[in-house]
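Hi all, long-time lurker, first post. I run a small reading group and we've been trying to get comfortable going from sequence to structure in the token notation. Rather than ask abstract questions, I figured I'd post a concrete chain and ask someone more experienced to write out its structure so we can walk through it together at our next meeting. Sequence below, copied exactly:
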Amino acid sequence: MMKSKEKRRSIAFISRKMILVLLLAAVFSGAYTGLASATPKLETGREDQIDRFIETRMHQNRIPGLSVAIVHDGEVVYSKGYGRTGSGAAVTPDTPLPVASLSKSITALAVMQLVEAGKIRLEDKAADLLPSFRMDDPRGKEITVRQLLNQTSGLADTVFPEMAFSAQPASLGESIARLKGVKLASDPGTAFHYHNTNYQLLALIVETASKEPFPDYLQKHIFAPLHMDRTTDAALTGSFKEPGHMLLYGQPVALKEPDWFVEGAAGNVSTANDMARWLMLQLGEGTYGGTRLLSPEGDCRNA
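-- Answer (accepted) --
Happy to help. Here is the structure in token form:
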């Protein structure tokens, strides 16, 4: 088991960047009212102020639809949906939406759970954990779990623009197999490069170490304990079919997102209500509703 200080260092990237994004998501993407009958506890007039703020920003930024939650002292004090989806349906706190790279924080939690269970170590080398991970660049053998989490593996979009390829892989195994001929952009552990493939490797490590398919692991060990009943992984849903909006020449146009391979890095589909539970897990130092998913030492918020 890693010492607490070492664990905290290992996920500094997750803490300093991803949790900031999660906090913003609580205001602009996620919502949870606790119980269905719960009444938001806001001062008189605050709801109108929030409505005006959000509606003004939606107009200024041409945002067709969003949902909002405000969390305070372990409770959601405000929850509401605004606007419409690409298909014209009203947005509610239960509208399913891709959460994009917030999925990385969920993958990181899965990794840290396995670290705390003693099934992997942060200093383990990815090539030792994954027999299928091979690169012609000999430096690839030195990439560790910690470096994948911290986005310092040496993999980068400049050497492997994985989302630009017209032919996308159909599985984590296929995704990792494409790395064989790739040369690293920098020595492992020496430079930060934000790159989705780091988290695809981590997802495959979760599968290998847990002996469970990655979507099943997330469902059993994260989504179910948090009662995130409307949250799924892209591999379970095939792909997200509901059209959203993309800005074209400054105007939102209802379009379905391209079928990129996003497993592990950006593959979760969730609702505002569920994402608020996820946020409260972070604010609760790895515990939500009496259920502990990670120790305070391993919890991202304290990194």
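A couple of things your group might point at:
The two ends are 16 Å apart (CA to CA).
The CA atoms of residues 24 and 244 lie 20 Å apart.
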